[in-house]
Amino acid sequence: MPQFRQMLYLTAWNNYVPDITLLSRVTHVALAFVSSEVLVGEPPTDWPLFEGIESIRAKFAPGTKILVAIGGWGDDKGFPEAAKSRETRKRFASNVAKMIQDTGADGVDIDWEYPGGNGDDYKQVPNSTKKWEIGAFPKLLSELRAALGPDTILSAAVPGLQRDMMAFDSQTIPEINRSLDFVNVMTYDFMNRRGTITKHHAGILESREAIKTYMKRGFPADRLNLGFAFYVKWFNTDPDERPLNAIGAKTVLMEDPETGADLGQSGAFAWNSVPAEMEDALQRAMIRGSYDAIGGGSFSWDAQDKRWWTWETPESIRKKFDNLVLSYGLGGVFAWALGEDGPFFDHLRALNDSIEVYESIVSHGPHGKIAFPGPTLAAMGYFYEGYYDFILVGQYSHEIKRMHKKYGPIVRINPDELHCSDPRFVDEIYASGNRKRDKWQHSLNTGATGAIRVGGFSTGPHELHRIRRVPMNKFFSRGQMLKLEGEVHEYTQRTCDKLLRTKGPFDLKEAFNCFTADIISQYAFGEPMGFIDQEGWEPNFGSWVKSFFNSAYMMRHVGLARAAVAITPLFANYMGDDMKNLMYQLQVVIPGHIQKALDNKDNGRIFADLIENKQLPDSEKTIYRLSGEGFNLLVAGTETTAASLACISYYLLAQPATYARLMDSLQGADPLNLKWTDLEQRPYLWAVIHEALRLMPGISHRSARIAREEDLVYTSEDGETHWVIPKGTPIGMTSVIQHSNEELFPSPKEFIAERWLLENGRHNYALEKHLISFSRGSRICLAKDLAYCELYLFTAAMALRVLPRAQLYETTVEDVEYDHDLIVPHPKRGSVRVGVIIS
């Protein structure tokens, strides 16, 4: 990867260089300035540098490149003269090349401020007369490159304010880019004497807009250097102004409206040359100063002097670096100017620290992902993710959502993985058909316990997943589920009968666990687990599923735990009750069910058929591997649907208007003879079920995919953001983040079934495409249609038979509302629960 650039301007009026120990990361130094007028005519015999190149070179680390900066603010005569014709451009370029040869400099930095207008003379020379400079500037740079050759450095300083970027559009930038080695974006002086309200002169917000604009118009990120200001600025504000917020306060008139002359109402100075009359005022500003987290800048408004101060601090430099250099993968930084930071050089130290962090990330992390935005700590290692997942228990989805608000639709959430929040990109990440998508092993480590890791859900490679998935598809097609509907209806009625017989308060979720577990076990193994027939609702398979969820983050983030269980399952006995219970299910209970299915091949259902499948290799038909498949079926077929039913039940009981409208929708339905296909056509029931799936999706955990054979190209809806996600990069989405998107789902925490209906009361199928409760693509939930069959039949039966006699018991929204992620959604109080009493 190319060396990260740190360029420092060094000026004649502040030629102060610190100890070389602070300069080890400096790659380029630009001596400011040589006037452009010197290079227009005949070359001088003695070049007007304020210090010799070799003398300067000796003050910096070996290998530091020394450039001559040409131009600067107020240099508005020489450049237009040089650019006006092919002949003058060639002469100028030839003179620059001779200066480089004579002085021994390593290159030049072109500081034409600004081609096309808005320079120091903009009041005397209208911008309209300078339009020709826009086309001439790239030609001048091209002549310079030709004269200097490929090995001499050629850079340019470019404006930070969009109003000044006349010469830098999508037509000119590609040509400019061909000539330059890098570009110094002046992300400072955003506030100057032309302004009329106060703002940060080097803030993150406007700096980001400048960087994004240049990238959008054609500069590659690695060509851009982000600018930092090693000086402080002040501006006098309107004496009648009493701002509630100092940002945005009115200023006094600061330049002559006729001539553009400075009226002395603003100024700037280096940290080592504070005017005596300003010392007290600056000290007050430093003491009272604040950092604006929104605009990203340090400031102070002095009510006594009516003066606005704006500056960069060491801390704001670190934040600016993190927000922009790391986030956008910029190629370097620069500062104006080195000597102005003396005598302590605190700003330079902060810049060095930031570069050190950057180099650490590059040396330890995946280089291809450094360009993607996200927190520095997340890029440095997995401890950031592990802290939110494992220590805070399932809180990373909330942190990822905050990242998206700060950084945009694509963020880096650990050294290797990206996350997307744009609903339009779902079908690219979770593609289907022949577009191969692998699962990522780091994600699969959450299920790296015993036989679970060899089940279809935990399979990484696309091809192996296909081998395991295809034989299962026929059992879970919609047509097959319609054949199974009679069994689902029978279990629905038996569960409702038992609910109506239950005395005293109980948890409906446990009843739903029994219902769903008996259905999936009957279908998978040929016999139910018998939870509906037992006395009461506990124990049930949900108890063991909790053990899996509670151990998931330990398995994901503690490699020693994974290794121990992989070596011998006996180690699980020493990892707590959750792991012990989980291994008992995997080693004893589920293999027992599978063996019974094999012994009864006529009624063994899914697993008997898999054993007899001639297309499957023998390695795929061992009891060990099938136990992992069985566990995955039981988890997916039990917990997820049961939680959705609990969500529906709570909101129907807590929101009588919702329940009343559902009952209207169910008019004419026979509670003892329900039909899935009929129920699907009832819009409000359809809406209630979809709203429950939004709030209580099957999987709440982020789910990454790897496009192994293709780059994924992302463009935001407004066209402002473009990313190419390299093939082999894990990138995923999170259902609870998408389902809380306020543009798609206003008031996202509320249960509003009506959002799923059109104005005519019919199904809003367009909104349904944004529901990812069952994932999407080639890895879409295998048992999706079974879940829908259960949801329709049981919701209708509950509404018609049970809920008229039910009331909530010691249950609030906090018992069903998403709070944290343990693979599936969990509320604040632990697992989803809905306490009820049946009268």
Automatic annotation (TrEMBL):
Question: Matching InterPro entries, A to Z?
Answer: Chitinase_II/V-like_cat, Chitinase_insertion_sf, Cyt_P450, Cyt_P450_CS, Cyt_P450_E_grp-I, Cyt_P450_sf, Cytochrome_P450_monoxygenase, GH
Binding positions for heme? Answer: C781
Protein family per UniProt: Belongs to the glycosyl hydrolase 18 family. Chitinase class V subfamily.
Protein's UniProt keywords contain Nucleus:
no
**Source organism phylogeny:** Eukaryota, Fungi, Dikarya, Ascomycota, Pezizomycotina
| Any Gene Ontology biological process | carbohydrate metabolic process
Top-level taxon of the source organism: Eukaryota
Known EC number: 3.2.1.14
What keyword terms does UniProt attach to this protein? Heme, Iron, Metal-binding
Tell me which cofactor or cofactors this protein depends on: heme
Q: Name one Pfam family in it.
A: Glyco_hydro_18
Name the Gene Ontology molecular function terms of this record. Answer: chitin binding; endochitinase activity; heme binding; iron ion binding; monooxygenase activity; oxidoreductase activity, acting on paired donors, with incorporation or reduction of molecular oxygen
Against CDD domains, the record matches this protein to: CYP58-like
Q: Where is the GH18 domain?
A: 4-358
Give the source species. Answer: Cytospora schulzeri
Which protein, by its recorded name, is this?
A: chitinase
